[in-house]
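Handout, section B. The chain below has 128 residues.
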Amino acid sequence: MKKCKYIGVKEVMAQPMKAHEALQKGYKIGNSTPECNGFEVEYKDGYKSWCPAGVFIEAYKCADTFTDRLHIELSELTERLDKLSNFINSDMFKEISVGKQMLMKEQSVVMAEYCNLLKKRISLEEEQ
């Protein structure tokens, strides 16, 4: 059986917690040292665990406010647009059909417009 790539998104509640505090609460800390920074993470089903700060920050973004969520959306869209732009500027792009090239270029333009729209919305929200 072939392994497939999966992408998951979880919504959690979290608060900063040192590894030694996690140990006192009975959480496993893996290879982390007791002074290691991390987060106590609570999942929707009530399950709680401890996660090292680096791992947590890589996996989760703060989404407390509407503006936070706009920033996340802009960040994700910018990353996708950068990947598309890099592909358009690559030699591999020249190997695909002209029709696909045109659609990808059009997609790039629309994504850039969407990024600009999100930036304007963020600016308006942050003015208030």
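Note. The beta strands are 13-16, 38-42, 48-52. Compare this with the example in section A.
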